[in-house]
Amino acid sequence: MPKFETLFNFDDINITHKKLVRDIIKHLEEKGVDKSIGEELHDFYELEDVPEFDLKNSLFQQVMSKAGVYSNIQGFVKTKDEKGEKIKYPVVSVCEDIRKLDEAVANLYNVLSKQSKE
After folding, report:
1. From CA 116, how far away is CA 7, in angstroms rounded?
2. What distances in angstroms separate CA 69 from CA 39, 56, 111, one per listed residue?
3. Where are the beta strands (DSSP E) in the chain?
4. Measuring CA to CA, how many Å separate 39 from each of 2, 13, 21, 34?
5. pLDDT tens digits for 31-86?
6. What is the pLDDT of residues 83-97, one digit of tens each?
7. Where are the domains of the chain?
8. I need a surface site. Which of 1, 9, 68, 97 has the fewest CB within 10 A?
9. How many CB atoms are closer than 10 A to CB 81?
10. CA–CA distance from 86 to each of 28, 41, 46, 71, 115 (Å)?
């Protein structure tokens, strides 16, 4: 029977894993490897905690919640905010009865209409 190797579970990264990655980055830098490789590894293995965008601050989420429509976080997109700070934005999915979605769209229309008059 062939050996099956599973993908690394990033939910299980611990301090020892992070120390190993830091040591690898240090070794690569000592060997003269481009620093951008170390920076990529640093970000990829999340050697520092990156804050997550709070869905409560999302206009979309606020309008959807008001209509009783809730989203599920599927993952995150890592990027930088307007200040250049690293942040993770949630990727969400929405699955709901069309009536609730229609209500949510109507709520959004009302919010945007009100904002455009201000």
Report:
1. 48
2. 39, 14, 16
3. 71-80, 86-94
4. 35, 18, 11, 9
5. 999 999 999 898 888 888 889 999 999 999 998 998 899 999 999 998 888 999 98
6. 999 899 999 999 999
7. 1-48, 50-118
8. 1
9. 11
10. 24, 15, 11, 23, 29
* Residue carrying the six token digits 């599920």: 72
Distance CA 45, CA 20 (A): 11
**Dihedrals phi, psi of 93, to nearest 5 degrees:** -125, 150
Query: Phi/psi at 114 (nearest 5 deg)?
Result: -65, -40
